[in-house]
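In response to the reviewer comment on reproducibility (Comment 2.3), we provide here a single inverse folding case reported in full, input and output, so that an independent group could reproduce the run without further information from us. The structure tokens appear first.
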């Protein structure tokens, strides 16, 4: 395992990678450099994502679907999120770490939103939080930011509202819905959000919003015109076999890699070809003979 400080390519050449902060998000947007973000929910994945030089790791509440096996993100609790956020923060040292606020952790009151946001930083090593919603969440965003906690917004297909949206479907495809999204994006910016995720919305709209906002947009199913891109890591790896949204590009088929490995293990064990001497612990001959003697078996 390499313990060397990773290098990154900058305009000035290769330099040692520094911890990513929200400042880099702003700087990248200003410089026209794209921002990369992936989800992680555990230590080894966080380590691998961090070593790949990804700018930000989102401990997404997608955890509920791709790791915990729920049909949607609604059952995910603060305890679930903090537990997985801690594991991620032990693995990642450079990426900006963003904890996703779960359903009902910020909707009941602004006070509760601030307190729960604080727990991500105080108890789980996160650098920032993300929450879903626009104008209706502006006061919560304002107060969380006032407490010193950077907030990322999330508009378009907001999975915690799956029941009011009528399913996981593309959003903002009518002029009035698109106008509402634009208003919501400006509300979040005005409330102090440092960035906003745009999920499953028309590419033209996302590009327009990205050009008008001063804060960076991070797209998922929102086209090439966003300031950054995010994917759910389990989708990208082909680890989640229940369904793959249209906007996902699969870079690996880990589900079948895992399946092959498990079948290989089963076959080897059943054929008694594993473990071999190579995988076994030995005992010196004289120790073995001494034992046999003691047992009266020599
Ligand atoms: O929970 C999550 O993983 C997310 C991303 C899809 C942005 O919110």
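Designed residues, in position order:
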């Amino acid at each position: 395992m390499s313990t060397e400080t990773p290098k990154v390519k900058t305009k000035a050449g290769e330099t040692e990678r520094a911890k990513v902060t929200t400042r880099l998000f702003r700087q990248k947007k200003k410089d026209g450099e794209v921002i990369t973000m992936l989800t992680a929910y555990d230590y080894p994945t966080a380590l691998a994502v961090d070593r790949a030089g990804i700018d930000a790791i989102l401990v997404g509440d997608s955890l509920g679907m791709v790791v915990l096996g729920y049909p949607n993100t609604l059952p995910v609790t603060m305890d679930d999120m903090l537990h997985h956020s801690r594991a991620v923060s032990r693995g990642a040292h450079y990426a900006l770490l963003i904890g996703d606020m779960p359903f009902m952790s910020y909707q009941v009151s602004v006070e509760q939103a601030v307190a729960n946001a604080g727990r991500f930083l105080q108890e789980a090593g996160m650098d920032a939080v993300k929450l879903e919603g626009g104008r209706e969440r502006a006061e919560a965003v304002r107060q969380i930011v006032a407490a010193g906690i950077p907030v990322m917004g999330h508009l378009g297909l907001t999975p915690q509202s799956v029941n009011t949206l009528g399913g996981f479907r593309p959003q903002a495809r009518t002029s009035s819905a698109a106008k509402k999204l634009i208003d919501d994006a400006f509300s979040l910016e005005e409330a102090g959000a440092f960035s906003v995720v745009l999920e499953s919305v028309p590419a033209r709209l996302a590009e327009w919003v990205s050009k008008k906002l001063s804060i960076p947009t991070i797209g998922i199913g929102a086209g090439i015109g966003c300031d950054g891109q995010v994917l759910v890591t389990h989708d990208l790896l082909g680890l989640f076999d229940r369904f793959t949204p249209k906007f996902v590009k699969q870079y690996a088929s880990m589900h079948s890699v895992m399946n092959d490995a498990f079948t290989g293990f089963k076959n080897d064990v059943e054929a008694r070809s594993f473990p071999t001497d190579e995988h076994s612990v030995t005992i010196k001959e004289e120790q073995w003979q001494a034992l046999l003697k003691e047992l009266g078996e020599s």
